Amino acid sequence: MKYTIKVNEVNKESNIKTMATVVFDDSFKVGSIAVVERNDGELFVAMPQFRSSSKDKYGNDVYKSVCNPITKEFRQELFDNILDTYQSEQKERTLETRDGKALQFKVSVVPFERAGSNMKGIGRIYFNDCFVVNNVSILQGKEDLFVSMPSYKTKQTDEQGKAVYQDVCYPVTKEFREVLYGEMIDAYHTAMDRTASKGDDFMVPEDTELPIMEQGAR
Description:
With 218 residues, this protein is of the alpha+beta class. It has helices spanning 72-87, 174-198, and strands at 2-9, 16-24, 28-37, 43-46, 49-55, 61-65, 67-69, 92-96, 105-111, 119-127, 131-140, 145-148, 151-157, 163-167, 169-171. The strands form four sheets. Strands 1, 2, 3, 4, 8 and 15 form a six-stranded antiparallel beta sheet that branches. Strand 13 (151-157) and strand 14 (163-167) form a beta hairpin. It is globular.
């Protein structure tokens, strides 16, 4: 799987040294990836996170990754390449995963309805069994269902004074968006049919968190 890393310099006074994006096979973009400097000067990669509905034992908010590598091998490969790109003069690099496989994906959707909202389901996207995107929402529009990618609230407002939201990750081509979103909607209908045949109520797995996005990397 081909992927392109691009880094952008930020305020050098901050412990966040750069923000990076990764585009998988010119089809799907992941943004808001931070390269952070610890107090001892060591650099590490922080994937975009959301504030979950959970609390730790001290009552503090628990943050979880919006998307992240799910294998040790790809995590090491991706994070090393992001750091190498930041530290090199070349701020954009295109690489191939070590397995050399073409981009593939699969999706999973769990039906879920929340009172007072148009939410119908929560989904995940898996790329090549090595990278996952969490908290993809299936929403009911005026006529049809549609897919909403994880997003965060910016400091900007629109002409009506409403907050502007920015997608953290999203398809970058019309063709891939149609295929991906079509698979998500189909997976939702399949899950609904399975739920109806079993006579079950809507259930969300324990490890599924409803996103409460905050601006910026944490």
